[in-house]
Design a protein that fits this description.
It comes from Methylobacterium nodulans (strain LMG 21967 / CNCM I-2342 / ORS 2060). This protein is α/β, with parallel strands linked by helices. Helices cover 52% and strands 12% of the residues. β1, α1 and β2 form a beta-alpha-beta unit.
Length: 328
């Protein structure tokens, strides 16, 4: 789909972070968007913002762990807009800290939201795609779907499972040339998601300097609708982790374990929180988590681009210096 005007797009986890950025990105291009999350008021505010930017939007309060609610979301979008072109499984959560220190229901809920939420989304969208002969299913997975993340065991399990599910589904649908199953693997993204997840470690989370903007992921979604690809990374650290774990799984696990243990040893104390896993938090919806602003950093994509340009300039300068030396 090169022209997104009037395209019908369903986005779960739409009220904040990546989902909010994606909603506005599609609305600016004239798409018709069905917004799904648990908070009705947040969705209604976002729908008004979409309309102000030239798109059409309807709020559909949805808990993605309820398959009937997800089916209702698909049916509502189809009835409201007369079709269903794109479904984005974006809702997600996580538990950070020692596995045994978190209540078991938080681990279960993490797997229900991340993995089963994606399964229910695909199950709801595919009948429409198959009947009309086209459609794009996009699923937000994570760097954690390519390499295991210590102190996030349930999150890693859900993301590994989600990658396997989408890969299997992609091959199952390979004879349907105009139905695409795309998976997106972002690196660390500046969203409220780290605050909305549970943290039972007793230590503050630090994202580090390479934090990507939610808009970077949103524009990847737009690109995939226009140019479908099987698996796409957002940020070179995600690709690096994929390659490292594929080529040397044990050393990669070992190094990641050392790095996160050391980061926790240095982190400042923080209160234990269960975030928004059990119920939404009553805060104003945000796209950014404010991590880059607090660190005074631009998006990691900008930093990486600047680094690449400086590296290329350095190589060119070195080559010209050697050439001049040989000429003398």
């Amino acid at each position: 789909m090169t022209d997104l005007r009037h395209a019908v797009v369903v986005i779960t986890g739409a009220s904040s972070g990546i989902g909010r950025a994606a909603t506005l990105a599609f609305a600016r291009r004239g798409a018709r968007v069905a917004l799904a999350a648990r908070r009705r008021e947040a969705l209604e505010d976002l729908a008004r913002e979409c309309r102000a930017q030239g798109g059409k939007a309807i709020p559909v309060p949805t808990d993605v762990t309820d398959p009937d609610a997800v089916e209702h979301l698909a049916r509502t979008a189809h009835e409201a807009f007369g079709g269903l072109d794109v479904w984005i499984n974006n809702a997600g959560t996580g538990v950070f800290g020692p596995f045994q220190d978190a209540p078991l229901d938080l681990h279960r809920r993490t797997i229900e939201v991340n993995l089963l939420g994606g399964v229910y989304g695909a199950y709801a969208a595919l009948p429409y795609f198959l009947r009309q002969g086209h459609g794009t299913l996009i699923t937000t997975i994570s760097l954690g779907g390519w390499a295991p993340t210590p102190f996030a065991a349930a999150y890693t399990a859900s993301k590994f499972g989600l990658r396997g599910f989408t890969a299997s589904l992609r091959q199952e649908l390979r004879r349907h040339r105009h139905i695409h199953v795309c998976s997106v693997f972002p690196t660390i993204v500046d969203t409220p998601g780290l605050e909305h997840g549970a943290n039972v470690s007793g230590r503050a989370i630090d994202t580090g300097p390479l934090v990507y903007a939610p808009e970077d992921v949103a524009e990847t979604f737009v690109y995939l609708v226009r140019h479908p690809h099987d698996e796409v990374a957002v940020g070179w650290p995600a690709r690096l982790a994929q390659a490292a774990y594929a080529l040397a799984p044990w050393p990669t696990e070992h190094l990641m374990g050392i790095a996160i243990h050391r980061a926790l040893d240095r982190a400042r104390p923080a209160p234990i929180t269960h975030g928004a896993i059990r119920a939404p938090v009553p805060e104003r919806p945000r796209t950014s988590g404010g991590w880059r602003a607090r660190k005074g950093l631009p998006s990691a994509r900008t930093l990486s681009t600047v680094g690449a340009v400086m590296g290329a300039a350095g190589l060119m300068l070195l080559a010209s210096t050697r050439a001049a030396a040989r000429a003398r």
